[in-house]
Design a protein that fits this description.
This protein is α+β, with helices and mostly antiparallel strands. It has one domain. Helices cover 29% and strands 24% of the residues. It contains twelve helices and 18 strands. The strands form five sheets. The chain has a seven-stranded mixed beta sheet, with helices on both faces. A five-stranded antiparallel beta sheet has the order 14-15-16-18-17.
Length: 459
């Protein structure tokens, strides 16, 4: 039976079948990427281009990392894609076009005979999916799931939050030239990590990890080339002193044969977002976020004469750690509300430069996500938005939402209370798995849910 002919019930059943995903992290991978970096540096020198500044110090995961495989379901990956990219585009045509973009991969992943996750026949069909977009978005899903499992293992009594790095940076730095500004932006400002992962618990300073995510349908050599580029992306943002921000470099290989492989390295660091001496002891997460005007010059290290050596990039100085903690928390709150349907509850957590205006106005007719659906799933009440579409000619309903208590607090602007509650809910969220009234269900530590089910035939 071809993928296109599969009954919807069978497709949904496949989405919650657990499978293994290979994880590769080794000294050999470090060597391969170093070779790609050297080759690229030579090419740039031949073309008389400046050699790229890169994050260095990458190594294989320590013994406190994930194992050689991780076990997950395709639906978890789709949830991670939808949650990670929910603020990425910010167009007035959000909703059907953007909010549910992960659903196009409902038939892209399947378990092979060995119990490993691989691309299905549908996922390998280049006529159905634009490969570059597919590899990028599916790669993001796997990168986030693996990175979260890694950090949860290392910090078991913390919450791991996912923040789009561009959304966070837009709160304080210009990412594009404006108005009459002429000239090409410095190359160092054009490359940025994909995500910032905040590891936190109430009342304590957070840790922040940068993630560069790549994905390819090519062979391992293509993965190494992509990860070489990722080293430059990870050097654009520094929290505190230059080179001290822990980083994860992740490339997902979507091979047509041999299954899916996640290649991952880490660059260690140890930065805690303790508020600066002139900031309050704890940032006021409920306060409106001040629009920053930070410099795109960062202090790298002392020059030969003892002075500071500056270069282009995005650097959070120690005296701004409290402000940046607020940026991260409110950026995540905006993403959570966007995942439930967007609108003004989302806009309240964003600055003008972060895209507040896109959520403060009505969307185009027929393309809006509205927070008007409520469901009890896995014994938890959720509020959010739904979407009805056809899967191989069968009507199905998808629902994305946030646990009611968290949703109500964020609607009221009570972000600090929301964070305390999501931390307290961790055991309940961790064991939420499956519901008889739904097909695939995924509940994440941030309190979001994504579920899908077949609808009864219309009369």
């Amino acid at each position: 039976m071809t993928d296109a002919a599969k009954p919807a019930e069978e497709i949904l059943s496949d989405l919650v079948k657990k499978a293994h995903v290979q994880v590769r992290s080794s000294g050999e991978l470090v060597t391969c990427i170093a070779g790609e970096v050297s080759a690229e540096n030579e090419r740039r020198e031949e073309k008389k281009l400046a050699v790229l500044r890169r994050r260095d110090g990458f190594r294989a995961l320590s013994e406190r990392g994930v194992g050689r495989t991780v076990e997950l379901t395709p639906w978890q990956v789709l949830h991670a894609i939808g949650r990670g990219l929910v603020l990425a585009r910010q167009g007035a045509g959000r909703g059907l076009a953007e909010h549910w973009q992960s659903l196009k991969y409902c038939q892209a992943l399947d378990r092979d005979r060995g119990g490993y996750l691989a691309l299905s026949g549908e996922g390998r069909n280049p006529e159905r999916y634009y490969k570059a977009t597919q590899s990028s978005e599916i790669g993001i899903g796997f990168a986030l799931v693996v990175a979260e499992q890694l950090l949860k293992k290392r910090y078991p009594d913390h919450v791991v939050s996912v923040i789009d790095s561009d959304i966070a940076l837009q709160a304080g730095w210009p990412l594009k030239n404006k108005g009459q500004a002429k000239g090409k932006r410095p190359e160092a400002l054009l490359r940025r990590p994909n995500f910032l992962l905040e590891v936190w618990r109430p009342g304590e300073p957070s840790r922040v990890f940068e993630v560069a995510s790549k994905g390819t349908h090519g062979k391992p050599a293509q993965v190494y080339s992509q990860l070489e580029k990722g080293t430059a992306h990870l050097d654009a943002v520094h929290i505190g002193r230059y080179g001290q921000t822990p980083s994860l470099l992740i490339g997902t290989e979507l091979a047509e044969k041999g299954g899916i492989v996640v290649h991952i390295l880490e660059a260690p660091g140890n930065v805690l977002l303790r508020p600066g001496s002139k900031e309050p002891e704890e940032p006021n997460l409920d306060a409106k976020l001040d629009e920053g005007n930070e410099s795109t010059l960062m202090t790298m290290h002392s020059g030969w004469d003892g002075g500071d050596l500056n270069n282009y990039g995005f650097q959070v100085k120690a005296e701004k750690f409290g402000w940046f903690s607020q940026v991260l928390a409110r950026s995540e709150a905006a993403a959570l509300m966007a995942f439930t349907g967007g609108g003004r509850p989302t806009a309240q957590y964003l600055t003008r430069e972060q895209g507040k205006r896109f959520f403060d106005i009505p969307a185009y007719a027929g393309a809006d996500s509205v927070s008007d659906a409520e469901h009890r799933i896995c014994g938890i009440d959720f509020s959010g938005t739904d979407h009805v579409f056809r899967l191989n000619k069968t009507r199905v309903e998808a629902f994305s939402g946030l646990a009611d208590g968290l949703y109500n607090r964020l609607q009221q602007g009570r972000l600090a209370d929301c964070r305390r509650e999501v931390y307290a809910m961790q055991p309940e969220l961790e064991f939420a798995d499956g519901d008889p009234e739904w097909g695939p269900v995924s509940v994440r530590p941030d309190g979001t849910v994504m579920a899908i089910r077949v609808l009864p035939p219309t009369v």
